[in-house]
Design brief:
about 475 residues; alpha+beta; 3 domains; ten-stranded mixed beta sheet; about 45% helix; about 20% strand
């Protein structure tokens, strides 16, 4: 092996006597390095954009969530609360089920007899009612070792937001009042949500604090502006409007969420008041469990572990477990991003193959130039395999050196990428990459996935490119070569 390496390196070193071979070798390395540089920069930026878009898409949702299925809502466990005095004859939310002292609140001595078509209870081995929520909660906590953070109940309801904006003109000192009204989705605040955790809504003399989208700032809304959230209740005399006093505690970035600025975060008490008064069929409304993982990458694996655990506990039919890639609003975009990534990788391989084809020309020229030396090596006992290995190694090292140069150049480019973007923006007279799609600045981190992909692909293609010249070199007959010389 040492013999093969020493001869291959000797052939690759530029020499004035073989100027044509040296020039072609340098051109091959330059072309491959250029392609490696472009591919790594492009794939790194593309992967960074994909990561940012994914985070923006799921910025207001946990990476994992569990939502009750139709089987849950049709179960004895859920419906029994509506015929039980202990439950005030009303259905309980997941949070209320979790803190309830009894899984089955029905008392035949006080409560009316259940209808004949009432769902049959799902009983445990000891004959007691299976507590679906508590057992599922315990299952989640057991899966915590796989990356699941503390589970949190969430609720989404509807309400009409009314804000009164009384502001003073700093120059004229005149006060003006404007109003803003909008139908909004109201959801429970989550301490684990990175988009809103910096602003904790609290209840003051103004009312309950809310966190709204930063888009409201464009309409002149400021932190501290007060107003109310209204909803309607049915009474014996008609429909009455109810108002809950609120104030703006802070703002959040809605990212690419479809509901965008229509989502408002409030404390649990406020949304509890809205819950029982909404009876609109809307897929956004509902109750479920958010599961926060340290990173998006762990969400898919954690989902599999959780589904398996729920199935083992006989609870899987009551819950729909979704990772961020399963969300209806995110799946089409994420699938398109994945398709684009696959397409770009395929194009990168094709470009690398074209670039590495220069190695074939270079090595064929090198074989013709070294026929005499090949004949001498064979006459001294070098096997055809060793001769072929020499030129195969030449191709491998050409690709490796080119990759190293390209990677170093790509790292330097990514480090100063923003300066390059600013220069392009200056030449065009406008932003080269709009912030609405690419963020305030392009991602400039070197992607290890892209680095590994390009390094392996380039060296492998370069090695394969050396096969044809290697085969030609191994078929040279020493007697004929030396006789011709």
């Amino acid at each position: 092996m040492r013999f093969v390496l020493s001869v291959a390196l000797k052939y690759l070193l530029p020499k004035s006597r073989q100027l044509s071979v040296s020039i072609i070798s340098l051109v091959s390395i330059l072309v491959i390095s250029l392609v490696v540089w472009l591919v790594i920069v492009f794939l790194s930026v593309t992967e960074g954009i994909e990561t940012n878009w994914t985070k923006q898409l799921v910025s207001l949702n946990a990476p994992l969530r569990m939502t009750p299925t139709e089987a849950y809502y049709k179960s004895y466990y859920y419906q029994i609360d509506q015929v039980s005095l202990q439950s005030n004859y009303s259905a309980k939310t997941i949070g209320e089920k979790l803190i309830s002292s009894e899984a089955d609140p029905y008392d035949p001595s006080f409560d009316a007899e259940v209808p004949a078509d009432f769902p049959k209870p799902d009983l445990k081995a000891d004959g007691s009612l299976k507590d679906i929520v508590k057992e599922s909660w315990e299952t989640i906590l057991k899966c915590k070792k796989h990356g699941v953070m503390e589970p949190e109940e969430y609720e989404v309801s509807l309400g009409n937001l009314h804000l009164s904006m009384v502001h003073e003109n700093p120059l004229s000192k005149e006060r003006s009042q404007t109003f803003l009204t909008q139908a909004s989705y109201i959801t429970s605040f989550s301490e684990a949500n990175p988009s809103v955790k910096m602003v904790r809504p609290e209840t003051t003399e103004k009312g309950s604090g809310i966190v709204i989208a930063k888009n409201f700032q464009n309409n002149g809304v400021l932190a501290g502006d007060a107003g109310h959230i209204s909803y309607y209740t049915q009474t014996t005399s008609g429909i009455q409007e109810q108002r809950l006093p609120i104030y703006v505690a802070g703002f959040y970035d809605p990212g690419f969420m479809p509901v965008g600025s229509k989502l408002i975060f409030v404390d649990q008490m406020l949304i509890s008041m809205l819950r029982s008064n909404i009876s609109i069929a809307d897929t956004m409304l509902g109750n479920g469990i958010h599961l926060w993982t340290p990173s998006l990458k762990e969400a898919v694996e954690t989902k599999k572990e959780l589904q398996k655990a729920l199935e083992e506990g006989g609870l899987s039919k009551y819950w729909k477990v979704e990772a961020f890639s399963d969300y209806e609003f995110a799946r089409p975009v994420l699938e398109q991003l994945q398709s684009d990534k696959t397409l770009f990788s395929l194009i990168a391989v094709i470009i690398l193959i074209v670039a590495c084809s220069n190695i074939i020309s270079m090595l064929l020229l090198l074989v013709n130039d070294k026929k005499k030396e090949i004949g001498i090596l064979q006459s001294m006992g070098a096997s055809s395999f060793r001769v072929a290995a020499i030129f195969g190694t030449c191709g491998f090292f050409t690709g490796l050196v080119s990759s190293i140069i390209g990677i170093a150049t790509a790292s330097l480019t990514l480090k100063h990428l923003q300066g390059l973007v600013n220069f392009l923006s200056f030449l065009q007279g406008h932003e080269a990459f709009h912030a609405a799609f690419y963020g305030e600045m392009l991602p400039n981190e070197l992607s290890m996935h892209s680095l590994t992909f390009v390094l392996i692909a380039t060296t492998l293609i370069s090695l394969l490119a050396g096969i044809v010249p290697a085969i030609k070199a191994s078929r040279i007959r020493p007697a004929e070569t030396l006789r011709s010389e």
